[in-house]
Amino acid sequence: MATIGQYRGKWKCQVRKTGYPTQTQSFDLRAVAVAWGNEVEAKMNRGAFAGSTSKQSITVRAVLERYLAEESDKKAYSAADLSRAKPVLAALGAYHVHKLTHADLAEYKRNRLALRSPQTVTHELNLLHRAYVIASTEWGIVLPNGVPKTPRPTLPRGRGTRIRPNQIDLIMQATESEQLKLIVPLAVETAMRRSELLGIQWEHVDLDRRSIYLDKTKNGLSRTVPLSNRALQVLQGMQEATAGPVFTLAASSVTQAFQRAVERAGLDHMRFHDLRHEATSRLFERGLNVIEVARITGHVTLSMLDRYTHLDVQGLVQKLG
After folding, report:
1. 266-273, Cβ contacts within 8 angstroms, sequence gap of 24 or more
2. pLDDT of 173-229, one tens digit each?
3. Alpha-carbon distance 129 to 91, whole Å?
4. For residues 123 and 219, what is the distance between their CA atoms, to the nearest angstrom?
């Protein structure tokens, strides 16, 4: 509430309200001080106050850009955040942080789902949420109405595509890329992501211990990937250096070469990422438990691991007896 008092010949008005920094202003007339205090209180009650000392006049754009500069830069693959931020900034950047509502987010979600997949929209909403939380907990930005929220879109079941051994052989025969002929079997044997495969450095490959150390991964967590006999053979057959990148292809080149090979082989609806699905399913079929598979694939949540797993029904039938 507002407190009025005299100080050094002027009328001082001080407004205190939970969730806001104390607001203070001095006036020549008591009536003006009272009017100012009433106006500030009314705006606070409506959630519309944006006083200069409360930092609430800052826009969503300013918060998100600061987050990208200070927080995303710490991640191994900050480019993903930059890409996800573009549509958010275009649609919501002009809002003041304290004026963005749950309804605004819900409308953004509906509009984006008409253009992009549920997973993409979820990534965008999660990015904005993280920026809001950091702004509130570490940057001193007051959010009297809390962090705006909306339920995340329902994610579809992971793709059920399994790439069979004969199909992999067809792809290998169809490609003209010598590096892709090595990348494909390594992907199927290790369940590594495309970015992880292309980021392998020879100094992180330990053929004696049959492992590859990944210091940069999609989720920012390093891990060590064990090598099967087939994966070990691939690396042993190509090692020509002790340091530097194992593969020199760009990510886009790998994708394009894979798609060309799929088309030449007469196979439909296959993507490079399906190799990770196949590899994860094979790990379970080899008898590894959930924790062991997660250690290899780098999945943080079991729900995500489940979306990547498509077990062979015939194999399950044999286990049932």
Report:
1. 266/170, 267/167, 267/170, 267/171, 269/161, 270/161, 270/163, 270/167, 270/171, 271/161, 272/187, 272/194, 273/193, 273/194
2. 999 999 999 999 999 999 999 999 999 999 999 999 999 999 877 767 789 999 999
3. 15
4. 13
The pTM score is 0.60
Q: What is the pLDDT of residue 53?
A: 44
Catalytic residue among 55, 109, 112, 193: 193
Least Cα distance to 201 among 211, 190, 214, 218 occurs for: 214
Let me know if 276 is a catalytic residue.
Answer: yes
Bridge partners (DSSP) of residue 23 are: 15
Is there a catalytic annotation at residue 96?
no
Pick the catalytic residue: 98, 299, 307, 310? 299
Nearest to 12 by CA among 214, 308, 20, 28: 28
| Known active-site residue 308 | yes
Sorted by sequence, the CB contacts under 8 Å of residue 131 that are 6+ apart come out as 63, 64, 66, 67, 71
Give the per-residue pLDDT at 65: 94
Alpha carbon of 234 to those of 100, 203, 230: distances in Å? Answer: 53, 16, 6
Q: Both tokens of residue 223?
A: 């891990």
Instruction: Compute the average pLDDT of residues 32-43.
Output: 89
In DSSP terms, 12 is beta-bridged to 5, 26
In the chain, the amino acid numbered 238 is M
Mean pLDDT estimate for the chain:
85
From the list 184, 204, 71, 46, the residue with the least C-alpha distance to 130 is 71
Catalytic residue from among 43, 181, 218, 223: 218
216 noted as active-site residue: no
